[in-house]
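Final report, Chapter 2: Outcomes

The project's central promise was a pipeline that accepts a single protein chain and returns its three-dimensional structure in a standardized token representation, suitable for archiving and comparison. That pipeline is now operational. To close this chapter, we reproduce one record exactly as it appears in the project archive, with the input sequence first and the structure output second.
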Amino acid sequence: MPRTVSFAFPPFTRTVKLLISINVAVYFLILLMGVARQGDGISAIYNTFALVPDSVVHWSLWQVVTYSFLHGGFFHILFNMLTLWMFGATLDSYWGRRQFLEFYFLSVIGAAVTTIVIAYIGHGILGLNPHTMTYGASGGIFGILIAFAWHFGEQEVFMFPLPLTMKAKYMVGILILIALAGAMSEKDGTAYVAHLGGALFGFLYLKFLPKRGLLFGLSESYFGVRNSYHRWKRRRAQRRFQVYMRKHQHDPKQYFDEYGNFRPPDDSDKKDGGKGGWVN
């Protein structure tokens, strides 16, 4: 049976609240700087923290994340934050904070990488070049939409302000087609390539990475390698001790059982008549 989600507004989870708070705080900071006529300061913020492919390849690597906290206008941030709340809160509750943040920022970074690659190898295709500035959280938002359709694709979504509902998987499919058409048509200032990049990396995450997330898979691999190393060290120490015992004409079986564990002392070995076994 498909998973169901209430038609009521989802709660503000702590993670989603944090992301929205950062985005809104940055937006109002720039608004206040505009009111104070600090145009040079606003330009400096965008030049430093927005995504510019030429800057990234010259080691402004933070831009592949920070661009997602900048927005170009009221409706830009409004729709992004509403989508983050409506769909991201459900995924945050479903996955947990760690995996949700991992997925969101992987989609953000994937959108940035896609934009940079197209800017350099596309030779101006799709309106991108190494000096094109990109900003907004839409790459991460499209990743969230893909994940919502993946896990809750059969859920009916109310298409506000239209008086109709649609399954989540169809809604996301339509949005992807709109982004694809926008990327191939004349540019209107919307970073459709970043939208598609976020959706692509979100899909790759869901399709190929461990079910419980990349960091969980890496930690499992690390502990597996570490445990294998310790087991190898124990086996090596055991073999060296057995060689030592043979050289001194002792039978290692007197000290190790068939599983390689060290035997406790026998009562018969006690000279003072005390109890055998280990003393703790």
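Archive annotation: The chain has two domains: 14-209, 218-269.
This record, like all others produced under the grant, will remain available to the consortium after the project formally closes.
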